[in-house]
Specification:
Elements lengths: L3 H7 L10 E5 L2 E9 L3 E7 L4 E7 H11 L7 H17 L5 E7 L6 E11 L2 E11 L2 H42 L16 H10 L1 H8 L1 H4 L3 H17 L3 H31 L27 H4 L9 H35 L1
Antiparallel strand pairs: 1-2, 2-3, 3-4, 4-7, 5-6, 6-7
Length: 348
């Protein structure tokens, strides 16, 4: 089975794994998420009631670059880096100059969203617009509702774990006090933790009210964005395709098998060079008959008269058998040593 660490090394995250970030446009707050590659991008925008999406790549991307910025000649990767850089700035300053306009199609009730960015590239004005269409309803669930539910559940679990740790610390402090220990500085001394009192204080604090007032901007700060990434990557691992997981396991097994073959080849050469452990040195002696020892097999030269010792398949089998025997002897020796140590401890 492929481990999660190995899977993460091969996993290529999609737009779902990228967190939301708040942006302020014309006094209103929106949530935006995006994913850029070397030659494409995906964006998803929401006002918490509607979702708009755009995906652009290849010729359509190059065509828009030439249309919006005809005087700028730069590789597509450089243009995409510029666009992403402007969007990243909204992380530190939600009031970054971004213009948003809605446009309704003449033959449809759907509203398109035009998200316009203004910046400079190499000292020249650079403009870009995202032409987002209404997204499928399932995207709202997959990208926002389900992740938020998972985040609430995970934060609750972590809170309970922290409560257990704090209560454990209180017991430890109480034990110290019972032995005469005292706090040298009164101002750092804390009362025993009571969960119900803590929850009541949180509900009546001013910070709780401020959090509710700025819920759009504070819900996805840096820490919660990191939690969002953790949730979505873990969700991708849990919900990974069984077929794909099986193929990855087979690929990993092939790699391990190749490595084992390499080790066997090198080990076989060492056996051929007569580098044997002392416990097996006697098996090389040609004067002793195989019948006298049940652990010995016929000599390769007797089993195959027409093949050389270096190329004989019988010798290869003998080498593998000796390897296995050596490992078995080492294991038995280690067990004997463990038993001897235990006896000494008991005797003491």
């Amino acid at each position: 089975m492929t481990t999660e660490v190995e899977w993460r090394r091969r996993w290529k995250p999609d737009l779902e794994a990228f967190p939301w970030q708040p942006i302020r446009v014309d006094g209103s707050t929106y949530l935006l998420k995006y994913m850029f590659t070397t030659d494409s991008y995906k964006v998803l925008l929401t006002d918490l009631a509607n979702f708009w999406h755009e995906e652009l790549a290849d010729q359509a991307l190059q065509k828009r670059i030439k249309k919006l910025n005809p005087g700028i000649e730069a590789p597509v990767t450089r243009i995409l880096d510029q666009i992403k850089g402007v969007l990243d700035k909204t992380q530190d300053d939600p009031n970054t100059s971004i213009k948003l306009s809605f446009k309704r199609e003449a033959d449809s009730e759907e509203r398109k969203v035009m998200l316009v960015l203004h910046s400079e590239l190499a000292g020249m004005p650079f403009i870009w617009n995202f032409q987002c269409r209404p997204a499928d309803k399932s995207m709202g669930s997959e990208h926002l509702i389900l992740p938020l539910m998972a985040m609430v559940g995970e934060l609750t679990r972590r809170q309970q774990e922290l409560f257990k740790i704090i209560q454990g610390k209180d017991k430890q402090i109480e034990d110290y006090k019972s032995q005469g220990a005292k706090c040298t500085r009164k101002h750092i001394e804390t009362p025993a933790f009571v969960e119900t009192a803590f929850e009541m204080n949180m509900m009546t604090s001013k910070a709780f009210e401020q959090q509710i007032k700025g819920i759009e901007l504070k819900t996805f700060d840096v820490k919660t964005q990191d939690l969002y990434r953790q949730i979505m990557s873990k969700r991708a691992w849990v919900n990974r395709s069984p077929t794909k997981a099986t193929s990855e396991d087979e690929s990993l097994l092939d790699d391990m098998s190749s490595a084992d073959d390499s080790r066997r080849t090198s080990t076989g050469q060492s056996w051929g060079n007569s580098r044997l452990p002392p416990s097996l040195q006697q098996s090389k002696s040609p004067t002793k008959s195989p019948a006298k020892s049940p652990n010995k097999t016929p000599s390769p030269s007797k089993s195959s008269n027409n093949s050389t010792p270096e190329t004989s398949p019988v010798k290869d089998t003998e080498l593998l058998r000796r390897q296995a025997l050596e490992r078995k002897l080492e294991l038995e020796e280690s067990k004997k040593m463990e038993k001897a140590k235990k006896k000494k401890k008991i005797a003491f």
